[in-house]
Each structure stands twice: as structure tokens, then as C-alpha cells.
Design goal:
By secondary structure, the chain is mainly alpha-helical. The chain is built from 10 helices and 3 strands, in the order αβαββαααααααα.
Amino acid sequence: MTKGLQCAAINAKCRKDVSNVLDTVKKIFLPDNDRVLKPRTKMIIVGAPNVGKSTLINNFRSMALGIAGKAVPVGKIPGITKTTVSKYALYDPGQMIKVNQHPLVYMLDSPGILVPNITNMNIACKLLIVGCVKEGMIEPVIAAKQFIKLMNEARNEKYFKFIGLNAPVSEDEEHKFLRQICNHHKIFKSGGDYDFQRAFEFVLRRFRDGHFGRISLDEPHDLGCLKKELQMKRFMKSLTRRERKEVKDSRSSNEMEIQERVQNFLGRESINLDD
């Protein structure tokens, strides 16, 4: 918002939200005095995997043109949209899709985009839980530990009742949590061993479908943690290889001194953390 960008929180499946977004898009990109001069406008929709980009395009098309059916495929897992190809085949998956007639507007769907390497395991687990990262990318025991922590912080009671328990599970009891899912919902491998991967995927599907209620996985203090991490990354980039090694070796014992050096560096370089 500080850069003049407009944003809105929407549910891609809610017709009212979709209608408001379409009206806003037309006002931004197609002012009244430009609609005659620009007979056709093309846009691309970009975002993280599995957040509703294809659903949004389909609903734009359905509401503006009254066309039922899906112009682009959708699913509950990331990676459904894999390519963006020729603009000439208008209604094929991954192609330019007509979403409005007057004025004439086309949209191009695109594969989900994330940073190449997610080094923060807490963020990686959150992305897995909400479906932006495919199951199996993180070991179920590691992801389950973070899932339990988030559910307990939200004081959610539905998650442990769903697996047949009467009290919350400690985040250090991730193996107990996964075993309980397997036992309660009869999820085993062919030889009779526990299938932790399928068990955790089973719980995640229920979470994403709303069986555990409306829950935010981010807290206000998370932004401060992310800014602190960004500060450290920029500071480390400013050092020589030898200096970086010295900082890494002494970080655990001299945390206060290192943080002071980071703050001095930020003040000297006048870095804007909102960039």
C-alpha cells in the first residue's frame, strides 16, 4: 500500500468478492476514456501455488459472460497449472481466457510462483499445511510438529477430537499424534505398519476443507521475525567470506554483539525493509 498498490482480501469462490475484484480491475486498467481506444486488454494472473488463481479466472468468466464450466482446470493440490503457452488458442488450459465482453478483457493463467529455496522451516511447513507446497516435500513428522504447535496456539479443540483424543497433543509428541491418526482412522501400510505420510495428508485435507474451523497460521509477531531474518541476510551479504564464517562461528555465543553490528549496518546503509 505504501507504493500505491491496491489490494483486497477475497474468497475466490464468493461471487460478491469476485464481482468487486472484476469491477476494480476494470477501473484500474480501463479508465472510461480508454475503453474505446483499447478494444482488447490482456492480463496475467500471478501468485503462489494453490491459492485460487484458476478458480478466480473461472468465476470471472462465469459471472461476466454467463458461461458455465471451467475454462482452466482447478484442484486442491498445487501444480495443476503447469504452463503458459500460445495466446492464440483462447480457451485451452493455460491460455488466454476471455473474462469480460464490454470492455473486452482476456486473462492468462500461470503456474504458481514461490521463492526457489525456502530456508525457514516454519514458513515451509505453513505453506505445506495450506497446500502451497506438495505433500511429501517435508517429512510428515517434521510438518506434524509444526501443525500441532499452530493448532495449540490457536486453542483449537477440533483437531485432537477428530483423531479420538480428549486433550491437546504436545508439539513434542508428533509421533504419538501420527500414530493416533493411523489407529483411529485405520491408516496402515500393506504390511500393517503405520503410514505416517497418508495419515498426515488425511488430516491436512480435513483442515483445508474447514473441518477444524477458520484459523490463521500467521500472528502479528511473525512479521517482526521475518524482518529480523531479512536484516541478518542483508548484513551477511555485505561481509567478506572470512567475516561471514567468523559471524557464523560466534553467533551462538555473541548474539547481542552481532545484533548490534546488524543495526549499525542498517543505519549506515539506510536500508528500507519494506522493499
